[in-house]
Write a structure and sequence with these properties.
- The chain is mainly alpha-helical.
- Helices cover 69% and strands 0% of the residues.
- α8 crosses α10 (204-232) and α12 (249-258) packs antiparallel against α13.
- It is globular.
């Protein structure tokens, strides 16, 4: 008696979930947002920086940046960014070190990190108004010092609408950002390293100079680069605080886009392209040094 022949087996149907991994769908909103509001505008700016008024390719927009006013604007912006980044790193590092390695009460850490998370994103018109109401010509602190202590900030040369006024304003979000970034690096310092240094006879300053600081240096330098980029690209705060009284790149770019400056409209794209290059270099330095710091702490 013959056995029935087996029926031919067709190709296995792959379930839809295996053909389309659904867990990637969670990235669709993020990728859409980044594409529409970051990648495409950046490409549009880069293309516009090399476009002539007639629609062809030109380098005149880039060479147009080599004028006295634009060079001065870039130089002032770089100085403000360096000043706010340096002071922000110094003050933020001291506060984070006191919180993580000092003898401050444990309940200080939570409120400080929460405030830092909020303050690091507080900028624009509200921040400018807060500093004008505090340190402006008729601000609360200015009037109090002049009326009660006889200290006239204006007579001493301080002006909130100046270089140092804008730098101090930027510190409001630079210091909290430094605290948020450097705190994990400080937490990564192992207690065994300090104990081993003490056993070998190292003092506290020697431990920081020969062990802790070399490990933290890439994180500190990388965070400073990030703070530099954060300050260099700040637009709304500078415009709302100083208006046109300070010649920096964000204000010059805003005037070019709004049409207050006559001339080639594509020069504004070249200004923005220059800002992209500067902030891109700073962010690249931060990423490289951050990765190096993580390798050290592992």
């Amino acid at each position: 008696m013959s056995r029935p022949s087996p029926s031919p087996v067709g190709p296995r149907r792959v379930p839809l979930r295996e053909r389309l991994p659904l867990h990637w769908l969670g990235l669709v909103p993020f990728l859409t947002f980044v594409t529409l509001f970051l990648i495409l505008p950046t490409l549009y700016i880069v293309v516009g920086a090399f476009r002539a008024q007639g629609g062809g390719f030109t380098l005149d927009n880039i060479t147009g940046l080599n004028t006295a006013s634009i060079r001065s604007a870039y130089w002032v912006s770089i100085k403000i960014s360096l000043a706010s980044a340096s002071l922000g790193c110094l003050v933020g590092f001291c506060m984070a070190a006191a919180m993580t390695l000092g003898e401050l009460p444990k309940f200080v850490r939570g409120p400080l990190l929460t405030f830092s998370g909020v303050a690091s994103n507080f900028a624009g018109v509200p921040l400018a108004f807060a500093f004008l109401a505090t340190l402006g010509p008729i601000g609360l602190v200015t009037v109090f010092l002049r009326t009660n202590l006889g200290i006239d900030l204006r007579a001493m040369g301080f002006n909130i609408l100046s270089f140092w006024g804008l730098t101090i304003t930027y510190l409001f979000f630079q210091i909290p950002l430094m605290i948020l970034i450097i705190t994990p690096a400080l937490d990564g310092l192992k207690r065994e390293w300090r104990e081993a240094a003490a056993i070998l006879g190292a003092t506290g300053p020697q431990y920081w100079r020969m062990v802790a600081f070399p490990i933290l240096f890439p994180s500190i330098l990388g965070t400073m680069a990030l703070l530099f980029a954060n300050s260099f690209g700040a637009v709304a705060t500078a415009i709302a605080l100083t208006g046109s009284s300070l010649n920096i790149v964000p204000i010059l770019l805003f005037a070019q886009i709004r049409g207050d400056v006559l001339g080639n409209p594509y020069l504004g794209y070249a200004l923005a392209f220059g800002m992209i290059i500067v902030t891109g270099i700073a962010n690249t330095i931060y990423i490289v040094l951050r990765a190096r710091s993580e390798r050290w702490q592992k």
